[in-house]
UniProtKB/TrEMBL annotation:
Protein name per its UniProtKB record: MFS transporter
Segments traversing the membrane: 12-30, 50-70, 82-99, 111-131, 143-164, 170-188, 200-223, 243-263, 275-293, 299-319, 331-351, 363-382
CDD domains listed in its UniProt record: MFS_YcaD_like
Entry keywords, A to Z: Cell membrane, Membrane, Transmembrane, Transmembrane helix, Transport
Topological relation to the membrane, as annotated: Multi-pass membrane protein
GO cellular component: plasma membrane
Any Pfam family: MFS_1
Residue span, Major facilitator superfamily (MFS) profile domain: 11-395
Cell location: Cell membrane
Record GO terms (molecular function): transmembrane transporter activity
Highest taxon in the source lineage: Bacteria
Length: 395
């Protein structure tokens, strides 16, 4: 090992990166806990499925509404102060939700939960992109995506330990949000002042700079949320048992988490744009083969790879964001990603559900396949015409 390589290794801010990843992971645990917990409680109260769904939509709506104001708030308040303040406000909102066991009271409170939680997520992710060395960005962002996916999975699993009665499950989420603030406080001295450079940029300004990246995030969100929410309907139409469908969804989520490091390494070797195109085409292939392998043993590796490839679209978009932007524009880009993810999650499921009503259960792979095909065409067009600033060169 040369002296230069040793120095380079020492300069990599591993402690800071670990702290930021831990922040977002704990945040993911808290978020992953609240969705099923509140749905279970409302279901026990006899709330209709429509109202439960509307209540659940309030949190991503809070994400969407808060996203445009995050860049401006970060400039005025400071990234660290804003993240810590939001962690405290999110915890306080969850306390209020625990005190008010009523679906109508929860509507505005769940909106506020999303509104306060989103800046914490955006700032942490921006920090990670800012301090990650370019030579290792693929692997580190792949690891980040994998760990965060695991955090979302741990949230629902924790209900098996603490149950859904009384304060214990709420305390898990409340403590998690407060721990996020403490971790931010601990890593702040290791963080660069943000934003260090670049002109002030809004989400609208970022859209003009990178519309294809936002479309990629939208597609990834719509794909994941649609499949998780409607795959049970698809399986039931084909006579599959609930247990088998649940296992297939678990396999999809496992691929979602376990394949991101491999895809990140692939991005370092081939370039993030080529790897994104690979992920899009692999997701499209999964849509095409799903009707033919659903009843065969091949369905298990197919959904595993499908999960990795579809979420890999988002991972590649993150890598592109870190490669291309810094400072104010990086913050605006992360806020734009949060907005695009929220819109994709809200739009994807109803649109696909309507397609399934029109043409039957095969509307699921058809709708997802059309979204992937549209993204693939845009990627290829952007590459050939040199538009959208997509960089194909490997690191």
């Amino acid at each position: 090992m040369t002296a230069d390589s040793t120095t380079s290794r020492r300069q990599i801010p591993w402690a800071a990166m670990a702290g930021v990843i831990a922040t977002v992971t704990v945040f993911a645990v808290a978020q992953g806990l609240t969705y099923p917990l509140l749905s279970f409680i409302l279901s026990r109260q006899g709330t209709t499925a429509g109202l439960i769904g509307l209540s659940a939509a309030m949190t991503p709506l809070g994400f969407i509404v808060s996203s445009p104001v995050i860049p401006g708030l970060t400039r005025r308040v400071g990234a660290a102060r804003l993240a810590i303040l939001c962690s405290v406000l999110a915890a306080a909102t969850l306390v209020a939700i625990a005190l008010m066991q009523d679906v109508w009271a929860w509507m505005p409170l769940r909106f506020l939960l999303g509104f306060f939680a989103n800046p914490l997520y955006v700032i942490s992710e921006t920090w990670l992109l800012a301090i990650t060395p370019a030579s290792r960005r693929g692997r580190i962002m792949g690891l980040y995506s994998a760990i965060v996916s695991g955090g979302f999975a741990i949230g629902p699993l924790s209900l098996g330990l603490v149950g859904i009665e009384g304060w214990p499950p709420f305390m898990v989420g409340i403590v998690a949000f407060l721990v996020c603030g403490l971790i931010v406080l601990a890593v702040v001295p290791r963080m660069p002042k943000m934003p260090p450079d670049g002109e002030a940029t809004s989400i609208g300004g970022f859209f003009a700079l990178a519309p294809l990246l936002l479309f990629a995030v939208f597609t990834a969100a719509a794909f994941e949320q649609t499949l998780i929410s409607l795959f049970a309907v698809y399986g039931a139409a084909l006579g599959s048992t609930e247990g088998r469908v649940a296992s297939l969804i678990t396999s999809f989520i496992a691929g979602n988490a376990l394949l991101q490091i491999l895809l990140g390494r692939m991005a370092e070797q081939l370039g993030s744009t080529r790897t994104m195109l690979f992920c899009v085409l692999a997701s499209l292939a999964g849509c095409l083969v799903l009707p033919h392998v659903f009843d065969a043993w091949l369905i298990w590796p197919v959904v595993f790879l499908w999960g990795g490839a579809s979420f890999g679209i988002y991972t590649m978009a993150l890598i592109q964001l870190g490669e291309r932007f810094t400072g104010h524009t990086l913050i605006a880009g992360n806020a734009g990603f949060a907005l695009a993810w929220g819109v994709g999650g809200i739009v994807g499921s109803p649109t696909t559900g309507f397609a399934m009503q029109l043409i039957g259960h095969q509307g699921l792979p058809l709708a997802l396949g059309l979204a992937c095909a549209a993204l693939a065409v845009c990627l290829l067009a952007g590459r050939w015409r040199g538009r959208f600033g997509m960089d194909d060169a490997p690191e």
